[in-house]
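It is worth pausing here to work through a concrete case rather than discussing structure prediction in the abstract. The textbook approach is simple: state the sequence, then state the predicted structure, then interpret. We follow exactly that order.
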Amino acid sequence: MSSPESPSRIEPCHLDDIPSGLSDAIVGLVAAGKDLGAKLDPKTAGSLAELVSIMNCFYSNLIEGHHTRPKDIERALANDLDAGPRRNLQLEARAHIRVQREIDTLFAKGQLGEPASCDFVRRLHREFYLDAPEEQLEVVGTSGRKIKMTPGKFRTSPEEDVVVGRHQPPSSAYVSSFMDYFESRYRLESMGAATKITAIATSHHRFNYIHPFPDGNGRVSRLMSHAMALKSGIGAHGLWSISRGLARGLRNRDEYKQMMDLADAPRAGGTDGRGNLSARALMEFVTWFCQVARDQVEFMTGLFEFDRLRRRLREYVTGPMAAGEAASDLADEVFLRGSISRGEASRITKRPERTAREALRKLLGAGLVASETPKGEISLRFSSASADFLFPRLFPPEQ
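Step two, the predicted structure:
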């Protein structure tokens, strides 16, 4: 068994074998990921991805015990911040979405790099806390006194040693060597397709097992997993979120913590792998994680299914929005094509110019469509205001 301060303490880092049940889940996950949003216009899919980033942030906050309403997250993105405690939650949410969208942009440009590298996870942490107020950088040290965390810096001081539940992460003096080992074991470029997908799960646990930062490890690990999903070919351009699955579980909301605790288990005898930690427990965790991911991809595929979404959009415009058939025709055309010029409104609606302009005004006023410039082409903007009708169960009912 490895020394408590040897980086090989996190072994096994990968599964020796992939049983048929897990293999089936991976095949289904890959297939579902390819179907998700496949028929959508790229601009429409891009607007949906922005809504999903809000959803991802909402559920990541929920895992941390923070209840930030989607509309408050949207207000934070518009720099409309509350006073008092809710302001800090809004700042956290805005930072989370900003970092996720940076990941998505890097991936789209082919510049994402290795998500499990030390440089990348330090960058995630640094960017997340970029505009954080002083109180968010304060953590309680081993002496009980508050110490200031440096964004992007691994634990190095004995004052930063931590205990997480029953788990004792590596002491701060050894975090850097653990993370170098972590990076070497989770370089995606050297892995096969199936191993890349299982590595999303195994690295997610082992990162939190090391607990490299004084605080913010859960958020960084979920952003890292998002990046790894993109690099592994199952990210569907940001149209699904692992955070929603982890927050909800397959059967109950306590599963994430339970499964993370399970994967902390030490090896149980000679038939339980060759590493310091339990190979059987890691297999259970990976299987659960992949099932959660597949469940989320399939849920979002159903939600974004082309014909259903098109029908719901028309029903939303004529129903809750009460904007009329002309506005519904306009919204439908924008959905199909991704964007339209304002001058096309009369031709698309087959109504007089004045009626068409009024229909467009209603869509713009409701925030369902928008443009980059005052006279530019309009495209769809999905938001929390329309989410309950267009995307049932995307957020919990009480939200």
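Step three, interpretation. The first helix runs from residue 20 to 35. The beta strands are 138-140, 146-148, 369-371, 378-380.
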